[in-house]
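Hello forum,

I keep getting stuck at the same step: I have a sequence, I want structure tokens, and every attempt I make locally crashes halfway through. Rather than fight my setup again tonight, could one of you with a working pipeline run this one for me? It's a single chain of 426 residues.
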Amino acid sequence: MSKKEDKKEKIKKDKNVKEETSSKKDKNNSKKEDSKVVEKKENISKEIKKNDKKTKEEKEAKKENTTELKKVEKTKKERKPISEKVVIFSIIAAILVVAFGIFGYYFYATNMIPVATYDGGNVTKSEFAIYYKTFQPMLTYYGYSDDMIPQQIANKAALDKIIIKEAKKEGVTIPDERKKEIDEQFQDKNQIKQLEEQGINASQMKQLYYDDAMISAYIDKKVQDLSDVDVLNYIKSNSTNSENLDLNSYETNHVLFKTTSDSGKALSDEEKANKKAQAEAVLQRVKNGEDIATIAKDLSEDTGTKDNGGSYTVYMDGQTDDKYASAVKSMQVGDVVLVESSYGYHVIKLASITENGRAKSEHDRENLVNENINKISTDRNFKVNEDNLKKAVKQISGKSSTDSDNTTNTTTNSTDSSESSTSTGE
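Reply #2:
Ran it on my machine without issues. Output:
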């Protein structure tokens, strides 16, 4: 091969090498470019994903915020009426508290303030009021002064409360018959109306009747529980003439012919003479041996003893008509006499005499029980609140307990024609 051709061939090879090199470079460059593009794409993709994630997170956060806001708004909407209700109820409650406070104070001031106190209790205005309305007219009738009456009534109210408490402790109850009577009495609409017109609460008055019945039952029990020795010692300690003290009891039967009418008016002389003649006829019949108890059931005008044959026990305690008692004391067992007393003509027969029989005297036994009960007010430190008592009286009656009436109260002695034993004064 010639040098020229070798040169051409060399040049061609060089050219091919250059082209190949160039092509490789181009390919390498292309690869690099492609790599850069891929990398860029990947970066862009990553960025996009990152942005998408961020956007998504922002959306979710926004969604959460929106949800939270909705919850808050919902809560606000839900709480708003509750809050308003609470405020309204709070206001109402506050008004009620104030109202009840005012009412409570007024009720306390009107009813519950004590007018008297004692160890373990007190007498309130309300309790005093019912006692005052019940007993004030009675005490006025018997001549108690206006300034004494409130004290007496407060004392009675306190004693009653103390006695009732003691009675309940000892198991005392109101007898069924008496309770039935009270219940029937307060079923009377006319009576309830009368009480209301006087400003008296019917329920409180009924309770007062119950209390009185309970006290009576308690006193009866205490009277029965006393020993004869205690009663005789009490009689002796209270006697002003112990030397001539007569502790005997005298059991008699009598037939009475009254010399007064049922209204207490004295009979005419002619009527009295007729009564005396009847008594003399009975006296003779008894002396002739007839049973005085049988005659008494038939003819006696003493309704209290007639049904039991004119039986009447005399105690020398001042409770029997003087002429009747004097006649009995001078008699021997079996004697029969005719005596005129303030009640009429009595045919009396002495059945027996019991030594120290006065220990059974209901009068003496009740006095001893009452004395023991009256000591309670001292033992329990009973005290009257003068200011509260005056206010209570003024509230009830419209005048102070120290105000004096312009009218003069007069009392008259009258004979109760309905007494069970007109001959003896029992």
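Confidence is low (pLDDT under 50) at residues 76-80, 99-110, 404-426. If your local run keeps crashing, start a new thread with the error log.
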